[in-house]
Write a structure and sequence with these properties.
There is one protein chain. This protein is of the alpha/beta class. It has three domains: 270 residues, Rossmann fold; 101 residues, no CATH class; 59 residues, no CATH class. Helices cover 45% and strands 15% of the residues. A hairpin with a 4-residue loop joins strand 1 and strand 2. The longest helix has 27 residues. It starts with a strand and ends with a helix. Belongs to the class-I aminoacyl-tRNA synthetase family.
């Protein structure tokens, strides 16, 4: 089945034709590893995980190469390391910087794993590719696309003026008029951007032909994608907040350094996760982390399901109501598919929906249909293509459904006793404890029903 993808570069939905069907190549901009990922950061991870799974399904699991980097050169990582050093932590600053990156990467992989995201084939760290970045910058200088000034190296947008801005559809002159660009005396054009900048003595830095310094953010992705995927590859992804300047700058650097290649053919951008109409972001402070949600007892699978309900090119909100509904659906589907072997392949309608520019909402609608038809094996195979209903992610559903009947009986018995004795204190105590564990308590004359909410914590029940 032909996959169609919306290409930001052409602003149209195009048939996806890989350069080499034996090795389909995708690069996605990864996180700056200075702190825990917020829920917005998880959206591109889930979106491109679905695409990765679809590509593996279509071309074969061994015929797709997915690269997602870690940006571990950053002032905020340095700031944490410095604060720890001042507080008396052992080790050189360099060591403390690396420790901070290591711990953040560990959290990231754990949290994204909890959302059912497969790990990419390569997860390069910027600090491991500094030599390649320096070589690429030197090459850009040699080719007349960059210049050194006052310890900095800058990309000269005028050397590529007719192309610069084509991804986001803006000309250099429009950008100068509209953008808040850093005006620096050493820039020839205010839009020129940094490839290399000096580092202070106490902060991490690398020796280079332009003095001790460190790379700019954009060159990291150009150098790492070239090293791992070559001068032409198929798909480049990231959030649409990266389209300008980050992706525009990646294109300028890569196309000028490797004019024989095409860099990336299909550009995919996910829309933002929002909070009351604004992008969830660290700088606005309107964020909560994936870790927070997991700690509150929201299963990673529920988070994934909620993401899949909205098309990746539409903004979306996280709401507790969506989480509760997703949890109830997943619980039903898990019960329906318990002990069943998945069908040999996902339902064609599900593959077709995903192949239509990742129509995940359409694919979920097909899963509801399979469930309604009682096709448990088809439901299981299709859900697993979307990264749902995997055995590894199901622990949350087991504990809850197994144990609740006993707790329901206990409350029903307590109520029967209380009706006789007119002493309802045990009933009230049990109800309060169940509510505190995140259960909704429904009592009617027919009996007691306990429904786990998004914050359900089975461990709390054990103390009741
Ligand atoms: N609210 C959001 N919704 C969807 N994707 C987002 C959101 N915020 C960031 N991203 C994406 O997360 C990925 C990692 O980005 P990055 O590490 O630059 O984020 P950050 O700087 O920590 O976040 P912020 O934008 O909050 O400062 C990028 O692909 C970016 O587009
Ligand atoms: Zn990038």
């Amino acid at each position: 089945m032909t996959i169609k993808l919306h290409n930001t570069r052409t602003r149209t939905k195009e048939d996806f034709v890989p350069i080499d069907a034996d090795n389909v190549r995708m690069y996605v901009c990864g996180p700056t590893v200075y702190d825990r990922a917020h829920l917005g950061n998880a959206r591109p991870v889930v979106v491109f995980d679905v695409l990765y799974r679809l590509l593996r399904h279509t071309y074969g699991a061994d015929h797709v190469t997915y690269v997602r980097n870690f940006t571990d050169v950053d002032d905020k990582i340095n700031a944490t390391a410095l604060a720890r050093q001042k507080a008396g932590a052992d080790g050189t600053l360099e060591r403390l910087v690396q420790e901070r990156s290591d711990e953040t990467i560990g959290w990231y992989l754990h949290d994204m794993g909890a959302l059912g995201a497969l790990e990419p084939n390569y997860m390069p760290r910027a600090t491991e590719y500094i030599g390649q970045m320096i070589a690429m910058i030197q090459d850009l200088i040699d080719k007349g696309h960059a210049y050194a000034a006052e310890g900095h190296v800058l990309f000269a947008v005028d050397s590529w003026k007719t192309h610069y801005g084509s991804l986001s559809g803006r000309s250099v002159d429009d950008m100068i008029a509209g953008a808040r660009v850093e005006v620096a005396p050493y820039k020839k054009n205010p839009m020129d951007f940094v490839l290399w900048k000096p580092s202070t003595d106490e902060l991490p830095g690398w020796d280079s032909p332009w003095g001790r310094g460190r790379p700019g953010w954009h060159i990291e992705c150009s150098a790492m994608s070239y090293e791992l995927l070559g001068d032409s590859f198929d798909i480049h992804g990231g959030g649409n907040d990266l389209m300008f300047p980050h992706h525009e700058n990646e294109i300028a650097q890569s196309c000028c350094a490797h004019p024989e290649g095409e860099f990336a053919r299909y550009w995919l951008h996910n829309e933002m996760l929002q909070v009351e109409g604004k992008k969830m972001s660290k700088s606005l402070g309107n964020f909560f982390t994936v870790h927070d949600l997991l700690e509150q007892g929201v299963p990673g699978e529920v988070i994934r399901f909620v993401f899949l309900q909205t098309h990746y090119r539409k903004p979306m909100d996280w709401t507790e109501k969506k989480a509760r509904e997703a949890e109830a659906t997943l619980r039903k589907w898990r019960a329906l598919t318990a002990g069943i072997e998945p069908a040999a392949s996902a339902a064609p309608a599900v593959v077709a929906a995903l192949s239509d520019d990742l129509n995940t909402a359409g694919a979920l609608a097909d899963l509801y249909r399979l469930a309604a038809d009682g096709d448990a094996a088809g439901l299981l195979a299709s859900a697993q293509l979307l990264g749902l209903l995997s055995p590894e992610m199901g622990a949350w559903a087991d504990t809850a459904s197994l144990d609740l009947a006993a707790y329901e009986d206990r409350l029903a018995d307590a109520r029967a006793v209380a009706m006789q004795s007119k002493d309802f204190s045990e009933v009230d105590r049990l109800k309060a404890a169940y509510l505190a564990a995140g259960l909704e308590v429904r009592m009617s004359k027919d009996g007691v029903e306990l429904v786990p909410g998004a914050g359900f914590d089975a461990a709390k029940l054990e103390e009741v």
